[in-house]
Amino acid sequence: MTTCYSKHVRSLSLASVAMLAIGLPLTVHAQTATASATSPVDEDGSGLADIIVTAQKRSENNQTTPIAISVLSDKALTDRHVQSLVDLGDGAIPSLRIAPFFSRPGALIINVRGIGVLSDSNQPGRDQGVGVYVDGVYLGRPQGLGTALYDVASIEVLKGPQGTLFGRNTEGGALSIVTKRPSGTFKANTTVGFGNYGSYLASTHIDLPEVANLSAKFDGVVSYRGGMVDNPLASALDFNSYDKRGFRFEVLWKPAANFSADFAVDNSRDATSTLYQQLLSRGAGLAATATASAIPANRLANIPNLLQPRRASTAPFGVPQQASVGKNEGYHFDMILDVAPKLTLKSITAYRALTQTQFDNGSASPTAQTAPTTANPTASFLLATSNGPYQFARYSLAPTRQNQFSQEVQAIGELGRIKFVGGALYFLEKVQDSAQAFNTNQSTTEDGSGIALRQIDFANQVVQRASHVTTTSIGAYGQGIYTPPIAGDIFHLTLGGRYSNDRKDGTLFTVNNALPVLPVNGVNISGPIKRRISTSRFDPMVNLAIDASDDVHLYGKWSTGYRSGGANSRSLSYASFKPESVSIFEIGAKTEFFDHHVRLNVAAYTGAYKQIQLDYSGLYEDIVNGVRVATTRTTTDTVNAPGTGRVRGAEAELLIAPAEGLTLSASYAYNNVTIPKTINPFPLAGNNNQVLQVPIRVYQVYTPEHAASGAIDYELPLDRFKLRAHIDGNYDSGFYVNYNDPVIDARTGAIRFAQPKGEPGFVVNGRLSAADIDLGPSGAKLSVAVWVRNMLNEQHVFYKSATPGAGTTGFFNDFRTFGLEANIKF
Predict the structure, then answer these.
(1) Burial tier of 662 (Cβ tally within 10 Å: 0-12, 13-18, 19+)
(2) Number of domains present in the structure of the chain
(3) Tens digit of each residue's pLDDT (9 = 90 or more) over 206-231
(4) Which of 81, 121, 490, 641 is most solvent-facing, going by the fewest CB within 10 Å?
(5) What tens digit of pLDDT does each residue of 767-820 get?
(6) Model-wide pTM > 0.85
(7) What's the distance, CA 654 to chain centroid?
(8) 86: domain range?
(9) Where residue 330 sits, what CATH number does that domain have?
(10) How far apart are CA 411 and CA 420, in angstroms?
(11) Does 2 map to a domain?
């Protein structure tokens, strides 16, 4: 066990801070696309600026690209003070939902339109349903996605299945991050800042002048914030802190007008502490599991202030807590050759390595309580797990190691009236994880009369599970856009398809610190459990677009996508599951009015959702080959829901430039996902500890039915600088985080104890700056800004869970944060 971080903010000079960095763990450049405009308005003020996207592997105007796409420019990210993808969890793009896996910001859950969600995304044998790309290269793991953003030109959210051009694990959509390439001219852009909770930020981006056809660029940034919830244990880290840093160096060689080669290397470190899970209400109702038993009143120790129904700034007692550290390094080489005026060939080669530790003691309070007794109906209690002393504060340790290699080739061009793109991809990934879960605290008395606590020696706790997986994926794809010579070339027919072959070779080699033991034909067999999952698939796409006028573009699209199958390392039998898939029909319109001063884009979709991958968990027992098997840990199986689910929704984005310097924007998303009723594979309390053979209701998780975002931006030129103001508001209607209700009637499957839904939230962010202050003959420009996130200090429980007999728990959104920044550009 490594030494816990000091909870005191460490000092660091601004000079040294400016040379440190953290970035998204990729340096690849698959695109030659120009970035989307930093301002939503043309420089001459004549109307809204074009937004350039690369969703179809070429640079195109978003308004003429027949795909539902939302784009955040570098300016929008700055205005919202977005330091990492975690900050987009407040709903800047309503159809996109980003949240930590449970309390761990080092591993993210990402879904688009409610598709592609697994509530436990932390295992090597499973994949997410939304692909995350940086400059065209796929990131294979949800770990490492919380690192800080750096010098991003734009973030494109491609909504709906992207199986043709982006391949597997993009059934919900794709998150494409486009970075800025070396410019070949000298530029320097440095920002320093500080804020509450001891936060500080420093970033620098330096472009060097071109020499001998070589252009180079250096990016570096450090971003730190202290904990938001105090941990009373003085030697331990506070809850909800981060420390992100790293660097990136890139060289672009362009010896001829039609050829370029790009090499980049990066290294980053992301250290976070977990969120704090609060006890919102005391337990009531039935016992949660078949193994739960009544706790004698004389075996309870009273803990003051354990119940915290409002957002807390201090935990009731101290627990060991240290930083979860993600380390990334990567190497990238790409080549681009224009072999003809209308034909470009690309080669994209990338290698990445990732390690991620996870230290999670955020659920200390929920594990330290039980239902009130008749003698003391208002008290909260320390949970008695035996005759004493009473252990609590579950510490979950889950380190992951991963490396990946990818090679993609592309051909992009035009042939007469056909625009085409074709390519092939090879992807190899190796992942290994392990997990421990144990209690770190206990009471000091056996009779329950005292409230003093002491830590348990946990240095030699056993490894409860460990597995490794090798994934090999190959794919070949093609897409053509044909414009027939009729009706003034207003019709555009797109046909595309992709063949994919995926193989996972996995082994579960440790269960409860030993080889797995499973019953086979009445005999217990000990040894590693191996799984090979192989899938071949073809994903088609058809799109008909119509240019109704120069400013009105309509489209109808049918496309499919899938998420690969795998195996669950939390399962005692390393149970496998099949791929899931979606088939979506979408119609949309991209329009502009009033001489490009009003832009309205709308889309509506419906489709089928098949073989949906669902997580079910049980405590301390499972049914394997018809035999009940006991375990000392929570087990989880992933099963495919029977039948066909349905998805439907609608989206709208509005952008208005009503007056010079003023821009108004608004977006809305309605997302509805219906999952077929499914049998819980685990034994249920109240059913003679047998599996209930009645399909039960399934909730779609991490998907608010209604979400909206709006913003006001204003720029006022003054004598020596520009005054810029931004404010945005973001709403969601709340969502579930667990698939099932905790207690179901043993005979009918009726709900006896319902799963709670997270609370609606409304978060306001703002920024005010004096920009482009002229610093004299050097040409340097200074900008000074104040920013605030969650301006109204609004609080809501975005993650809410309930267990009968234990109570309701949850995670609150972040407190209000604010700060001051200074930026200098040369």
Answers:
(1) middle
(2) 1
(3) 999 999 999 999 999 999 999 999 99
(4) 490
(5) 999 999 999 888 899 999 999 999 999 999 999 998 766 678 999 999 999 999
(6) yes
(7) 25
(8) 14-825
(9) 2.40.170.20
(10) 8
(11) no
